Amino acid sequence: MLNDENIFGNILVVDDDPEVRGTMESLLGRMLLHCETAGTLADGLRAMRERDFDVVFLDVRLPDGNGLDALPEIKSIPGSPEVIILTGQGDPDGAELAIQGGVWDYLVKPTPIKQTMLSVQRALKYREEKRAEAPVIALNLENVVGHGPGMHTVFDQMAQAARSASSTLITGETGTGKELTARTIHENGPRRDGRFVVVDCASLTETLVESTLFGHRKGAFTGADKDRTGLVKMADGGTLFLDEVGEMPLSLQKSFLRVLQEKRFRPVGSTQEEKSDFRLIAATNKDLESMVRDSDFREDLLFRLKTITIELPPLRSRAEDIRPLAIHHINKLCEDYKLPVKGFGSDFFDVLGAYGWPGNVRELFNVLERAFVASGQEKTLYAMHLPQDVRIKVAKATLEGGKDDQPASAPGMPPAGGPAQDAASWLEAQFDGQVPSLKDFKSRMEKHYLEYLLQRYDGELSTILEISGLSRSHYYALLKKMGISSK
């Protein structure tokens, strides 16, 4: 029994069924645990912000929201409790989404009493052991800006990676800050005094790839007029960062796998192996698991890369960070150019917030620098200083959204209710001169379809589920995967 192990704790049960709340309160009371209950998501979140809880039993379907949607916010609460999902409608997609959100367990009602007790006991024991660990030094997050729940999760994962020597895989769309994340992990870890060596896998050529990575000896091939140290050796004692690892040639992946396993390699033209003790961090904007299924990436290499996985959210899903990111970057530009700190007109942030940022933080910083240059010696930045292409897109989106009370078309979709278009012309416009793979096209269209449904039916969940044929859990899993806000 729990009290025999001297483990005690505060438990919160968030469920809209008073019978479930009463049953759980009685069971936890018999386990000598303090229990509080809440019937809505809002009441549960309020209780978590006001009082410390060790474990939260969280229902999925609540009157005022989906419990799974609240996981990032719960994780961002100081001393975030362990979460046990307790749902009456379990399904594989819901379980996947819950585990990705960092829950302790996923239980389906009616859950046997013994299983419920064991889950609580283990969660409390884990929490007690975690508290007993030596305190972790706070991350130095210089140049890393993020205040939303999604970024708090990322920071926790970065701290875990920094105090570990395990291989780390950073995923995310282009421009989300994967290299900055990797550098921050390196600079906060025990190898901070070693080099941070970047390998741009997208630029590796078949002919020079081994020489670039492993180095070569003088005379190994035409043009090798002296010995050259490869990037793998340069990272000895430090970190080797494989940027866009999904672009690594398939022919190299097998030999590189051995380097990861043995930490040994042979320079081109050498008869002796050399050793390099490096920590590996990799990054990609591709779906490596999908590439494995298509035989474009080795499964054994993927296993070696993703001991720790960090997924960076797109900027469109962390709108609350646009303003602090803008202020941070403009202040840095003022410092670099030795100019007084500039102010901001309210319309400046209105436009930034209304833009979709397909290029993420990288595009934001580029746009900000263009606005900074356009403002010259002026003391305040206004929307007028922003690039015309950004302002035009925002203006068009605003006007189309309010025209005749018709729903605006989702990006990349044919106009809602408009005349039928020639298929070839429409596809040509979507491809932007480069035809994507079928898989990438399907993924893009799937995202546009969901955005269109959200816009057309104003987020009305029951209507969207009925029309799309998706289950609730699958729907939320897709929104999370594609970085679409359901609000």
List keywords for this structure.
alpha/beta, 5-stranded parallel β-sheet, 487 residues, Helicase, Ruva Protein, domain 3, Rossmann fold, globular, single chain
Quick summary of this structure?
By secondary structure, the protein is α/β, with parallel strands linked by helices.
Overall description:
The protein is of the alpha/beta class. It folds into 4 domains: 2-132, Rossmann fold; 149-313, 3-Layer(aba) Sandwich (Rossmann fold), CATH 3.40.50.300; 315-405, Helicase, Ruva Protein, domain 3 (Orthogonal Bundle); 419-487, Arc Repressor Mutant, subunit A, CATH 1.10.10. Helices cover 45% and strands 12% of the residues. The chain contains 20 helices and 16 strands. A 5-stranded parallel beta sheet has the order 2-1-3-6-7, with helices on both faces. α6 crosses α7. The protein is globular, with a radius of gyration of 26 Å.
How much beta, percentage-wise? 5-15%
Which ranges are low-confidence, i.e. pLDDT below 50, for 5 or more consecutive residues? 1-6, 402-421
Strands in their spatial order, largest beta sheet? 2-1-3-6-7
Tertiary shape:
globular
What is the end-to-end distance? 43 Å
Query: For the record, what is the CATH homologous superfamily label of the largest domain?
Result: P-loop containing nucleotide triphosphate hydrolases
Percent helix? 40-55%
Biggest sheet character: 5 strands, parallel
**Quaternary organisation:** single chain
Number of domains: 4
Report the C-alpha radius of gyration, rounded: 26 Å
Level-1 CATH class name of the largest domain: Alpha Beta
CATH topology term of the largest domain: Rossmann fold
In round numbers, the mean pLDDT is: 85
- What is the number of beta strands? 16
CATH architecture type of the largest domain? 3-Layer(aba) Sandwich
Structural class by sheet pairing and helices: alpha/beta
Q: Tally the helices: what do you get? A: 20
